[in-house]
Amino acid sequence: MNAYERPGRALYSWPGSRATGPPMSPGPSNSAPGGAPAPGDLAPLLAERRVILCVGCGGVGKTTVCAALGLAAARQGRRALCLTVDPARRLAQSLGLDPLGTEEQRVASELLVAAGLAVPGSLTLMMVDAKRTFDGLVTALARTPDARQRILENALYRHASTALAGTQEYAAMEKLHAVKDDPRYDLIVLDTPPTAHALDFLDAPQRLVDAIDSPTVRWFVQALGSSRRLSLGALARSAAMVLRGIGRITGRGLLQQVAAFITDVNDLFGSWRERADELARAMRGPDVAYVLVTTPDPLCVREVLFFARRLQEQGMRPGAYVVNRVHELGGEPASADEISRAIAARDLRLAPGAIPAIAEAARQEHRLAQLDRLHLVALEEAFGEDAGAAPDPLLVHVPEFPRDIHDLGRLVWVADVLAGQPRCC
Which residue from 210, 187, 376, 135 is spatially nearest to 291, judged by alpha carbons? Predict the structure, then answer.
């Protein structure tokens, strides 16, 4: 491993966060912009919590962080289950789980041993299937077998259970609730669905309840009465004209499908609202920790801070922040002369023009690191505002690695940083 592959060099906490773990060697890359060096890791959350939810906007590396947290917990002796909606296929392949299905799949101990890992616990992964989860929910809540069958066979339901906004988020919460008390696991880590806004996950139960209880749905239910069929003669003249026009375009059969679906779902509404309230309460339990994942990108930082404020408004606090893909700031970059002398001392033979290219790459890396520090000032200020509040959130920086994280060996890099066990090169 070369100097640019050392995970953990930029691992530290901002002022006001709770620092844990052994001290690291001092150096410029270990200094937080607003205070003295302070190491931080997520080992306390992995040891103390039952459920960890990885939340953040799309593209920040939530799936990798989720898998790495599960691996770190397994190395601590815990039986970890990782739930994901959108698995990274190459990562699943590297764990011997291709394709990753909707049933629990345990990472083979032989694979872990072959990677040189001592894992006294276990790591299990499972993909959340929104359609299958909703089918199970309908089966549980339907009052009669006939009502259950009508809903499951309704074409509109089959579409809505996979394509309606919020269904993936709600399905993820439903699946988490179903397994959180499973005695086979000590820790459940959920990779929340990829959304444009991290806030979508927190609001998913209420959004679906509001969709079912919307004025349009209530109007349909009143129009249908007890017949479960749409009678245009019973509607106001203007509404009947609109629906007749829609029927000429889509066919009368579609309107009847809509009518049947709305009536049957309305029968489930009371139980569905209770279920949504139960899910919302479970997500606020003391054994649940929210790990907010971001990158130094200003839009991602803004999103994760907005989500943190919403948590606080609802009486909750983030358990930790993970800043992924951080460029390390390690002092001034070497000049071309310094690089040339270092290469000569090692008797290395490089292609013509290599030394200026290396010097320029080092300067670019330094500029990116400075830019990351600037973008993360907002996080520093947020931690300063929260200083003294209990419990203080944790914070870990995961460095920008030179290669994609899509195999077990590289996943260990991330797991080591998150658990405060950076390996020496």
Answer: 187
CB of 127 closer than 8 Å to CB of 89 = no
SS3 (DSSP) at 215? helix
Contact 43, 419 (CB under 8 A): yes
pLDDT tens digits along 6-33:
333 333 333 333 333 333 332 333 333 3
Average pLDDT over residues 293-307: 91
Pairing of strands 187-191, 51-55: parallel
| Strand partners for 188 | 51, 81
Alpha helices by DSSP H, 98-153: 109-114, 130-141, 145-153
DSSP letters for 216-249 = HHHHHHHHHTTS-S--GGGS-HHHHHHHHHHHHH
Q: Which CA distances in Å does 55 have to 79, 280, 301?
A: 22, 16, 12
**CA atoms of 85 and 11, how far apart (whole Å):** 29
Separation of alpha carbons 425 and 415, rounded Å:
16
What distance in Å separates the CA atoms of residue 109 and residue 99, rounded to the nearest whole number? 18
Amino acid type, 127 = M
Distance CA 146, CA 151 (A): 9
Nearest partner of 38 among 380, 286, 365, 370, judged by Cα? 380
Q: Is 347 exposed, middle or buried (0-12, 13-18, 19+ CB in 10 A)?
A: exposed
Contacts of 161 (CB under 8 A, 6+ apart): 130, 131, 134, 135, 167
User: pLDDT for 391-422, tens place per residue?
Assistant: 678 889 999 988 788 788 889 989 999 998 75
